[in-house]
Amino acid sequence: MKCAVHPEVDATGFCRNCGKPLCPECTRDVKGALYCETCVASAISAQMATPAVKPDVNPGAAAALGLIPGLGAVYNGEYMKALIHVAVFGGIIAALSSDLPGELDAFLGIALGCFYFYMPIEAYRTAKARQLGQPQPPDLVQVEGRKPIGAIILIGLGVLFLLANFHLLEREWFSKAWPVGLIVLGGWILMDRMRKTP
Fold it and tell me: Are 53 and 131 in contact (CB under 8 A)?
């Protein structure tokens, strides 16, 4: 029988996984068993794609620590996410303590409450996925397709502070037009979802 890769050479063994006849040049010996290069590569990539099970991770502790901005992400070993959580939380509080129109104050107050409850829930979900060895769920900082949502939030907060420094947020037009930002954000999310739908 000839080798499946080199038809001019006699086969000296078979791949344990797929059964292909292989010559000495094509065989890969793994702990005494012969495999073809394709099967070895598939096994390595599958092992790298599967997150390790971490039974010592406690989702309840992650959720409790998530009540303190950034600490739940630190518990899960996600230091960049923790930094973004602290920056967003601190940015919203700084915006609330500045002279902003009443409508924007109400919006930022709701955003602060939502973000405060988001952090422990996200820390719990991430810890649970790590405990079970599953891929981490998408979140504000890293969603499917690795879109930089956290960076977009920080840029938005920076723009708000800059406008406040130049006293542009005190104008009547801004207090009436800020919902346009929500419409644009909703439209962007809708377009993104429609592109993903087959």
Answer: yes
State the total domains in the chain: 2
- In a domain, residue 4? The reply is no
**Domain membership flag for residue 7:** no
Is residue 64 predicted with pLDDT exceeding 90?
yes
Which pTM was predicted? 0.51
Q: Which residue has the tokens 């050479």?
A: 9
Query: Exposure string (b/e) for 121-142, b if CB count within 10 Å is 16 or more?
Result: ebbbbbbbbbbeeeebeebbbb
Q: pLDDT band at 65, cuts 50/70/90? A: very high
Q: Which of 22, 21, 50 is nearest to 135 (CA)?
A: 50
User: Which residue range(s) make up the domain with 175?
Assistant: 59-196
- CA pair distance 98, 92, nearest whole angstrom: 10
Half-sphere exposure of 6 (CA within 13 A, CB side): 12
Specify if 86 maps to a domain. Answer: yes
